[in-house]
Structures are given as structure tokens and as C-alpha cells.
């Protein structure tokens, strides 16, 4: 099997709180008896795209297994490239392809510079077509992007979700190798389907965003009390996707119930 850990919406903001929460998650992953093969970070790495915030992220996300990132609406493409990827600054979409055994992960940049909503632009679709053509003909593929391509019953996120999702849906439905779509943005663990495939939205390590039955905008929207949480994706030998959501207690592991 392949085990992929997904972190999202870490929102490094030059405060100790969000750094400590990600460090707790990374320590949890490092201490697992069977550690992940890869860590995927699906956007909003920083809170406002500052180079200093990416410097925080670079330190906190260090691991001896591969860590791959994509931008969210709070990120800055140029700073992400220079501070996390070690590449020259550029405002072009940050798309990337990664092989983990038989699995191909295609990470798509759905951010629109300066805007909260999402869109996969023409350059990204051209890149995606090439990446799909180059992927093994008989191996599984996961797509990852920040903005969910379908409504999640969130009064905050649904109005700034992915625009023109039908175009992506046609690709997902038309390629039998694609076993699922991973997203962030919603600050909540969500499992649904998109174009007939599993769509998993990872929780945030920073906070929880309520559904339409919980929030009263503009008040009581974000809950900062819960511990950080992540998604753990298992790709089995039959190339099917199973996801576990895990809360990482800031107080550590208890092997016995408290008194």
C-alpha cells in the first residue's frame, strides 16, 4: 500500500500558535510505526504570502520523506517558489507532478493572484493534459488542488470555490486512472464525490470552519479551539482510495483513559 498524509490550510502567520500546531502534526507523522510515503500540503500555507511566513513553513514542514506543496488563495506564487521550492520568482501557476511508487500525484494551482476564489487557467489545463499523457497508462492518479470543485454547504467557502468545475469534471470522469481528488480551503474534514470519484477535503491544522448549519456570518464562522487535524490516504494494491481523518492532540498520546 501507499500512505499519503495531507495537511492543509496551515496559515503560517508569524505567530507561535500555528507553528506549534504544524510541528505537533509533523512529530505525530514521524513517530508513526508505519510512516507516510509522502506529505501533501494543499494550499493556504501562509496567511498572507509573506516571505517570512514561508520561512516559518520551510522549518516546520521539514521531514525525511518528500513534502509537496501547492498554493491557496492566501499564498503568493513568487514567494512560495523562492522560499519553499528554491526556484526563481514567477507569477505563473505552481503545478507539479510526483511519482510515489505506482501512484502519480498531480498538484494543480487553482489560485487567482489577489482573489479568494479559484480557477484552473488555460496554462494549467495544458499542463494537466501533458501530465496525464506522460503518466503510466496503468497506474493510479490523484489530483490535488486547493479550491473544492463542488459545493460543500459552507456559506463561506461555496462562494469562493472553484469556478467552471465542469471542465475539470470531464477530465476526472473520462480518465479511469484518476482514483480521487484532494482539496483544502474548507477547514473541515469532508468526504464526498466529484465526477463519480471520491473527493476528500482535508481539515486545517489551524482552525475549523463550520457548515451552513453551524455558522452565522460574519460572526461564529471560524473555531480556533479544536486540535489540528489531517487526512491520511491509503492507496491499496487494487488502486482504491481509503481515507482516515486524524486529530493530533496537542497534549500528546495517552495509552490509558484519563482518571
Low-confidence stretches: none
Cα radius of gyration in angstroms: 17 Å
How many helices does DSSP assign? 5
Strand order of the largest sheet: 4-5-8-9-11-10
Oligomeric state, counting identical vs distinct chains: single chain
Number of extended strands: 15
How would you characterize this protein structure?
With 259 residues, the protein is of the alpha/beta class. It contains five helices and 15 strands. The strands form four sheets. It has a six-stranded mixed beta sheet. It is globular, with a radius of gyration of 17 Å.
Give the tags.
six-stranded mixed sheet, five-stranded mixed sheet, 27% strand, 15 strands, alpha/beta, 259 residues
How would you briefly describe this protein structure?
The protein has 259 residues and is an alpha/beta fold. It is built from five helices and 15 strands.
Write the layout of secondary structure elements.
Elements: E1 2-7, H1 16-30, E2 38-42, H2 51-60, E3 67-70, H3 77-85, E4 96-100, E5 103-107, E6 111-112, E7 115-118, H4 122-134, E8 141-144, H5 165-174, E9 178-183, E10 190-194, E11 197-201, E12 208-209, E13 222-223, E14 229-235, E15 241-247
Amino acid at each position: 500500500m501507499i500512505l499519503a498524509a495531507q495537511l492543509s490550510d496551515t496559515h503560517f502567520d508569524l505567530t507561535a500558535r500555528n507553528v506549534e500546531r504544524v510541528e505537533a502534526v509533523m512529530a505525530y507523522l514521524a513517530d508513526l510505526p508505519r510512516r507516510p510515503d509522502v506529505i501533501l500540503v494543499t494550499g493556504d500555507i501562509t496567511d498572507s504570502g509573506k516571505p517570512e511566513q514561508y520561512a516559518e513553513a520551510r522549518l516546520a514542514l521539514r521531514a525525511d520523506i518528500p513534502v509537496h506543496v501547492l498554493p491557496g488563495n492566501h499564498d503568493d506564487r513568487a514567494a512560495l517558489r523562492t522560499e519553499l521550492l528554491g526556484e526563481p520568482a514567477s507569477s505563473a501557476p505552481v503545478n507539479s507532478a510526483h511519482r510515489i511508487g505506482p501512484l502519480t500525484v498531480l498538484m494543480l494551482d487553482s489560485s487567482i493572484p489577489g482573489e479568494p476564489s479559484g480557477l484552473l487557467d488555460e496554462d494549467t489545463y495544458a499542463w494537466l493534459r501533458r501530465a496525464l499523457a506522460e503518466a503510466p497508462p496503468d497506474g493510479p492518479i490523484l489530483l490535488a488542488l486547493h479550491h473544492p470543485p463542488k459545493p460543500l454547504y459552507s456559506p463561506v467557502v461555496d462562494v469562493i470555490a472553484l469556478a467552471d468545475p465542469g471542465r475539470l469534471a470531464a477530465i476526472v470522469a473520462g480518465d479511469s486512472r484518476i482514483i480521487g481528488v484532494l482539496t483544502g480551503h474548507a477547514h473541515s474534514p469532508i468526504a464526498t464525490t466529484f465526477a463519480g470519484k471520491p473527493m476528500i477535503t482535508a481539515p486545517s491544522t489551524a482552525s475549523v470552519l463550520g457548515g451552513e448549519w453551524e455558522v452565522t456570518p460574519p460572526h461564529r464562522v471560524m473555531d480556533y479551539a479544536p486540535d489540528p487535524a489531517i487526512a491520511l490516504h491509503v492507496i491499496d494494491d487494487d488502486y482504491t482510495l481509503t481515507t482516515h481523518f486524524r486529530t493530533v492532540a496537542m497534549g500528546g498520546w495517552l495509552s490509558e483513559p484519563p482518571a
